[in-house]
Sequence to fold (367 residues):
Amino acid sequence: MITEVFTADQLKKESPVFGQLSFNDHEQIVFCQDKDTGLKAIIGVHNTILGPALGGTRMYNYSTEWDALNDVLRLSRGMTYKAAITGLNLGGGKAVIIGDPKVDKTPELMRRFGKFVDTLGGKYYTAEDVGMETSDMDTVREVTPYVTGISESKGGAGNPSPVTAYGVYMGMKASAKFTYGSDELSGKKILVEGIGHVGEELVRLITEEGAKVVISDINEERLNQVHKKYGAEIYRGADVYTEQADIYAPCALGATVNNDTINKLRVKIIAGAANNQLADENIHGAALQEKGIVYAPDFLINAGGIINVFAEIEGYGRDQIITKTENIYNTTLDILHKAKATGLTTNESALSIAEERITNRKKEILG
Fold:
């Protein structure tokens, strides 16, 4: 008998898409390619029980196509729970475009991507994410109505980043209330990792409240800009995860809470804008709980963006956007208290509420 031995990398490549660890009952995965524009994209539709899937398009220069697939699977699943826990009649979806947005993105590529979105007939609505701008969504809108986050001058809700940051700010304040007995951030040392559109707006909000802000980013130019604008201290140490602070706000890419970093963290609270902050939500959610670190579930507190763009579908105005986003404070507090009372991790507590809403809706549909 001959036994063939495969490396872990070979096994990953041999496994079918349905065998990927991130594949979590997704309804549909669409692979999009266009030779003329160079487009290579993946659209992930996770769940549409509550409504059409909505989630932004991320353009990133992934190392491999498997990494891109893994990202879209994790992100689209997160959007399902984000919409559910926020009370929106939306499902979860996401898209990724493989490439460097500074080099590869063109109006022709965005329009071709929009054509692929259009073929789904409204099952998936796209929006802005990492590597995208509001103007890109305006371009997509030229070829499909299934896009949100377009310019206010064109009748849209505009850039969702400020509202996303405001929701994170609400979740951060609720976490401080739970941990310290007061939601005042004045005097608290807050480490913000990633100062893109959302991260910078969060820096503005917490600086204005009097927090001591330390910033970290791979982009030196952005660091200097935000430092000059808000007076935030630039982290110059060797390992940002060892920095002692009251609150850690991950606002870049996900999985920064992992086997390598979790034992280094010297903070009381994690509350940031990045999606999928826990590399493994079960293992690392439990590890944070054991360390006594309060984790504000990312798919809850970064939901301001989806609230903002959903306004374009539902037709509600700015006042309702802000009211719904401010309610993230109350929901975060409820989840933190529920987790403490039940012994669940905060992530498990939040997921249980979201899953209950989806299950109840499924029962209604099936009668």
User: Anything to note?
Assistant: Residues 1-6 have pLDDT under 50 and may be disordered. The first helix runs from residue 8 to 14. The CA atoms of residues 89 and 228 lie 41 Å apart.
